[in-house]
């Protein structure tokens, strides 16, 4: 299994100068899954620079889980990592491995990259594999790198600490099953689908002096 992404993909209708950020999974010499990144990175960074992915990137719409012979793989890309509802949808569809190929910026990656990856692993009791682009590339961008693999307990089991490199690890089905059996949080879910939160508003009269 080879997972490639994100790759620029022109939409069928041309997209009026925009394209999809697309992940493809290749197995047995053929493309077996295609996922288009749902969330677009529009933000002002700590150094004052601005990222506006929506200017050039079209939003995908559909989460994808690939049922491979060795496990069910939830597909995502980079900025998707900040949206736990996507990973809950992947988990609910049976995902045991979550892949997050990324080019996190240096300024956001320093503080957020590892905590977010470990959170997604813990919340969904799944392996998280996150290959990450490193170094300067295009239009003054500098990506954080630090490729990581996280186990279903939230422990980092492989990483490239800085610069270019390769991280290798084993994924243990027995560990996955033990974590889910000993702490069956996924079976304890009570809020399924889109469940609106109740908002309670206090009036000024009710506020203690």
From TrEMBL:
Residues of the CN hydrolase domain: 1-173
InterPro entries registered for this protein in UniProt: C-N_Hydrolase, C-N_Hydrolase_sf, UPF0012_CS
Pfam families in the cross-refs: CN_hydrolase
Record-linked PANTHER family: DEAMINATED GLUTATHIONE AMIDASE, NITRILASE-RELATED
Family: Belongs to the carbon-nitrogen hydrolase superfamily. NIT1/NIT2 family.
Stated name of the protein: CN hydrolase domain-containing protein
Species whose genome carries this gene: Nannocystis pusilla
């Amino acid at each position: 299994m080879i997972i490639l992404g994100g790759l620029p993909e022109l939409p069928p209708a041309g997209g009026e100068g925009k394209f999809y950020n697309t992940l493809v999974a290749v197995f047995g010499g053929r493309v077996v899954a295609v996922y288009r990144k749902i969330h677009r990175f529009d933000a002002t960074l700590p150094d004052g620079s601005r990222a506006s992915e929506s200017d050039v990137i079209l939003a995908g719409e559909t989460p994808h889980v690939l049922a491979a012979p060795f496990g069910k793989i939830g597909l995502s890309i980079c900025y998707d990592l900040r949206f736990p509802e996507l990973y809950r949808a992947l988990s609910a569809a049976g995902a045991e491995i979550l892949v997050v190929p990324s080019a996190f910026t240096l300024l956001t990656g320093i503080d957020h990259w590892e905590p977010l990856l470990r959170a997604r692993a813990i919340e969904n009791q799944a392996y998280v594999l996150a290959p990450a682009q490193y170094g300067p590339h295009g239009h003054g961008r500098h990506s954080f790198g630090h490729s990581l693999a996280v186990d279903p307990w939230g422990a980092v089991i492989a990483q490239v600490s800085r610069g270019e490199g390769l991280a290798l690890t084993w994924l243990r089905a027995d560990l996955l099953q033990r974590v889910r059996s000993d702490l069956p949080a996924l079976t304890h879910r009570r809020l399924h689908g889109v469940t609106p939160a109740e908002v309670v508003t206090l009036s000024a009269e009710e506020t203690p002096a």
